[in-house]
Amino acid sequence: MQTTNNDTEPQNLLAPRKWWHTASIYQIYPASFKDSNGDGWGDLRGIISKADYIADLGVDAVWLSPCYTSPYVDNGYDISDYCDIDPRFGTLGDIDVLIAALGTRGVKLIMDLVVNHTSDQHAWFLESRAGVESKKRDWYIWRPGRQVTLSDGTRVQQPPNNWRGQFGGSAWTYDEGTGEWYFHCFAPNQPDLNWENPELRRTIYEMMRFWLEKGIAGFRMDVINMISKPTDFPDADVVDAGSLYQPAEHLYYNGPRVHDYLQEMRREVMDRYPDTMTVGETPCTDTAEAVRQYVEPERAELDMVFQYDVFSVDFGPTGKFSKAMWSMQDVRDRIVRWQHALSYASGAWPTFFLETHDSARSVSRFGDGKDENRWKVAKMLALLGTTLGGTLFVYQGQELGMVNLGLDVPVQSYSDIETKAFLKQHLDSRQAGSPNRLRTVDEGVAEQIRLKARDHTRTPFPWDNSHPFAGFTDGPTPWERPNSDFEVCNVSQQEGDVESVLYFWRQMLRFRKQHKETLCFGDFYPVDTGSSPVFAYFRKPVEGPGNEGILVVINLGDGEDVEFELPHGLEEEVWRYVVLRGTHAGRRGARAGKLLLRSYEGLVLGYQLVCA
């Protein structure tokens, strides 16, 4: 077996090092984490009550999903007041307490920044739509419609262009009061802000400073590469002949002035708070060159962005809920691509994640769905994530090996706005072809929803096996039902079990810190394993005391045991391997230079050159 060199030598381009280079960041979805007052909603006081649990996990920061004032049409990503907390979650005073509670335990707080759009109930938008002469009219994107003459001579008004929104239908909504259309990439309740307006930008920067002055450690920036649009709003090419509205992501992602805006934001805000960090959500930014434009230090924009190749590996040709032909080897190849493209040595910092609030559960997506393999898959994915370079993001419940909702929950009852919008399109389309058809969901479509819907990661966190709501709330009705498997997957059950997924995550996060020079900063060299289900890679340490070279070997398959021959180095070299961590109990060492890997087994081995 051979290693593949990435032909990059360390140049210390990212020096001086920052705390976030070695950080593991835990995402909390506040509605679902812990309810402190029995109203059925997770809240800030609930998070505060679990500060010890968070610190014991071994993470360095919490990324808190939106808890700002919101009508909650899109679960908090429709904000009506950026500088206040929604009453369902608590108060501004609770945020201060949370920052302090985490801080005394060595954990920082990062807030979600959602500035591509607001709620249609935000005071800015209410003033903007009050009239065409409103002082804030230009804070949002307004355009007159297009007059179209029908075959019978009737003139009707159509949207300004043919762009499709992210949740289906037109990306424009008509406003009766002013006779114009406003633009929204997402729901009509989420009008897009007009970043061309300098007064708007100054107000956003002031809001960011408000939170940074409170002591937060930075921002995760929601769809930040969508804030700049082409001002002429050209029609998108017709690729879906059966629809009035066409996909236009290529026109509004990574727009013409996005880098100007981010550089301005860096100068006006983030550079004044030097111990903070930014991570951008930048969908459809698929090339290393495009990513580097956001994260190269000399460009002074973002510290890092999320790489979506692994996240979207199972998305089909017509979008997230269409079926794709893929394998775990595709996952392996995508990881290798980005570990080579972004690294400490290359001068552009990477991230790694397998779950967020916008995904389904990784064990369900990347495993085989068999109960007997569930915990194996969860540990295997934990070992993978904690041994790759860059900043690691872990989503609540991932550390327990949580899985998707079961068959006991019909997809028609899923509540997320994205799922509901897709189901409506699907049912409307089926009925249009057969008007007398009952509104039933095609089983193939239902299967994809059960695999990929965002609903799966938004269920209440299972603290124990108590009925009816797994310790999430003492109230009569939670905002969302818990996963019905909480009796076998909960914190209290895993706390004292050294074979549990939770215990394994804690051990691996500590191991990652102990070997940060190798695992966070070190170079990445994949081992060529051909068509084998084994994913193996070396992590070469940056010079420093107490760090050794590491070989990671993972069986991504669920079949029979797989043999892996340990690399022996160059001619005349002899390497000695020692197992440092592993996913399976009862691991024996190598025999005759070979390892026999069980299904979903992962190993971390230290290696040293003993003679040459």
TrEMBL record:
Residue ranges constituting the Glycosyl hydrolase family 13 catalytic domain according to the UniProt record: 27-439
SUPFAM superfamilies: (Trans)glycosidases, Glycosyl hydrolase domain
UniProt superkingdom: Eukaryota
UniProt entry keywords in alphabetical sequence: Glycosidase, Hydrolase, Maltose metabolism
SMART domains: Aamy
Keyword Hydrolase attached: yes
GO molecular function ontology, one term from the record: oligo-1,6-glucosidase activity
Swiss-Prot/TrEMBL GO biological process terms: maltose catabolic process; sucrose catabolic process
Gene3D superfamilies (alphabetical): Glycosidases, Golgi alpha-mannosidase II, Oligo-1,6-glucosidase, Domain 2
UniProt similarity note: Belongs to the glycosyl hydrolase 13 family.
Name of the protein in its database record: Glycoside hydrolase family 13 protein
Source species: Teratosphaeria destructans
